Every structure is written in C-alpha cells, then in structure tokens.
Amino acid sequence: xxxxxxxxxxxxxxxxxxxxxxxxxxxxxxxxxxxxxxxxxxxxxxxxxxxxxxxxxxxxxxxxxxxxxxxxxxxxxxxxxxxxxxxxxxxxxxxxxxx
Length: 99
Known about the structure:
The chain has 99 residues and is mostly helical. 49% of the residues lie in helices and 0% in strands.
C-alpha cells in the first residue's frame, strides 16, 4: 500500500526527478516528466492537486482498498449460549410389592 505522505514528500523534494511518479508505478509519464522538466514546470504544479487521487487509484487498482478491503477494522463479538435443555425427570425404581 502506497502512502500519500511519502508521495507528497517525494513530490516536494525529488519532484524534479519524477520520483513521485516512479513511486506510484507510472514509469511512462515519469520518464516523460523527467525529460521535459516536469512538462516545463507546469506538471509539477498540477501533480500537487492530483497526487492524492493518484495514490488512491494505485491502492484501489492493486487491491489495497475497495468495497471488501477497506481500511476499517470491524471486530464483531457474538456471545451465543446453548439453548436450555429440559432436564430429564429422575427415574424412580419400581417398588416391588409383596404378594
């Protein structure tokens, strides 16, 4: 799972080298940005606004978040007791009568 904090740190400190795009697996656009100076500086500013969505998309596409894999921990505790069993009546010995 990729972190937005790490992506923004890479964008700020190493954005001139497209490190944030390589971090998110966007090799093609990373090379394009690297060779054109972040699209002449404009791409670096644009990435400030779209970088959070890029991280979310990466995590969604790689199965780290989604409808069945959210970041929410759901712990459910169910206390189940066995149904009450009727207690059998005590068996009484038959009395033998003297005949």
